[in-house]
Design a protein that fits this description.
The complex is a heterodimer of chains A (309) and B (291).
Chain A: H1 2-14, H2 21-50, E1 53-54, E2 64-65, H3 69-76, H4 80-110, H5 117-125, H6 132-142, H7 149-156, H8 173-197, H9 202-210, H10 215-244, H11 247-252, H12 264-274, H13 278-304
Antiparallel strand pairs in A: 1-2
Helix pairs in contact in A: 2-13, 3-13, 4-8, 4-10, 8-10, 9-10, 10-13, 12-13
Chain B: H1 2-16, H2 21-48, H3 52-57, H4 70-78, H5 81-112, H6 118-128, H7 137-146, H8 153-177, H9 181-189, H10 194-205, H11 207-223, H12 226-231, H13 240-243, E1 248-249, E2 252-253, H14 255-286
Antiparallel strand pairs in B: 1-2
Chain lengths: 309, 291
Amino acid sequence: MTTVTIITQGRRKRRPFGSQGIGTAAPYIIPALLLYGWFLLYPMLDSIRLSFYEWSGFRTETPIWVGLDNYRRLFTEDAVFPTALLNSVVWVVLSLILPTVIALLMALGLNQKIIGRNVMRAIFYIPAVFASITVAAMWRWIYNPTLGFVNQLLEAVGLGDWTQSWLGDPRFALGSIFVANIWQAVGFSMVLFLAGLQTVPEELMEAAKLDGANAWQRFRAVTIPALRPTTVVVIILTIINSLKVFDLVVGMTGGGPAQSTQVLALWSYTQSFTNHQFGMGGAVATVLLVVTLAIVIPYMAWSLKGEDK
Amino acid sequence: MTAIASSPQLATHTRKRPVDWTGVALWIALAVTALLWFLPLFLMFMTSVKSKADLNSSAMWALPGSWEWSNYATALDVGNFWITAGNSLLIAAIKVPLGLAIAAACAFALARIRFRGARSLMLIIAIGSMVPIQIGLGPLFNTMLNLDLLDSRFGLILPYLAFGIPYQIFVLYGFFRGIPHELEESARIDGSGTFRIFWQIILPLAKPALAALFVLDFVATWNEYAMATTLLRSQDNWTVPLAVQGFSTQHGTDYGPLNAFIFMSAIPVLIVYLLFQRYFVQGALAGAVKG
């Protein structure tokens, strides 16, 4: 470790590049920082600021400082917020299990030399290219109570009693949206896993085989360790995309019926733009931000660690 | 690659046992899953070629009584396809290359020019790549209002850039770090300036990562809904994802043309995928995975 550092430093001194500093870097980073600061960082921070005010969002009105009152209302009075928080958490947990495992299984299967594998890869990936809002429209039709595929199929096979108003019943609505999500989300994770599988060392696999390891032992001892970095990426992207979930819910139920499918991202939006309570919207957004950072910062620490080799 | 390596041993398997039952079971499981995944696409296509009367009377999976190709013409009309697709294309054509250039420049400076605070800057940007946009949507609306850029296609490009570049910087940073310093040193000795090193040495080496990011960013931009629906108002400025709502009226949703529209809306994305698919997989992981 120490040796490495010394060598780098020695090299650093030799390199004229090393000493150029901020003056050289400025023209390269300023455009990015301006955009980032103005249109991403500032709105985020402003959401936190607004969460301490009561404001309808209209320019003619001045925000009124209310301190922590929005948060008090959020946790004690807002009947929808607990649902939204719970749904977001459930969505993240389910996303980590179902689509991720399905994607891994698909990738493992399609990594073999089998007939039709390119066609299958394409089929699994195609849903990922559609806009979520169009996927939502499509699945709303599939779930249509009278003309939709699901209920028609149930009728056709004699399970007419099982037909439901899939998106209109609070018991089924979130699950029904989630099925559409699985259909769409699996492809991208599968591609990442497939790429990760290319890094499994072939020699190690051969050696394990010669040592008489069976398929399951080879999978546990060789494939899983080699897939670890990919898995971390898939997991973190899945968590982030789950916290962002918005388009699918907007397009399929709009948060209903009776707000049963609300999620944090949509509830923040609804509070700000539909209910004209930018303060409450900001408070929901701040909760979402805290949840996100609690997940992202440990990952970042891991990812940037040991970068200075 | 793996396929080539595993084929000889697959052959010995076959010699030992005439039928590889595990392999057959695996194939059947995959094929059934593939059929399941294909089913919604098939239903969508069937819907897109049926008349309203047909949709009301026949099963969703049944072939249409008469092939209603006119749904596609209706979809172009109702979805305002040429205008919305034109808007989406205009935004993507400016946003994607410009964003990549800005991100690449920033990642280059952070990864290859030593200056104080580079690491903390990288950390702040990396965190920004992961927070949901909805957190800042309310204030963003006000920012755009104050800049008089609400309901403007060109205005929309600014937040699109801001939300696109952090992830790209994050990926390219990892990629640029991996390029050996010797290359750049010899160029320095030959008298190349910083910009030349960036433009002629570092960027060409990052082509696979840039291509993968290009695909991902094009798709993300083309499909973006939350910001567009918040910041765009008039129908003439709508992008493709916003046009979907045009198919629902108080009389209900016109599912035939709607599904036709959804199909057509994915065509540009599919074209971009086909053009860049060679780079896509290798590049997608290039910066994201260590090593």
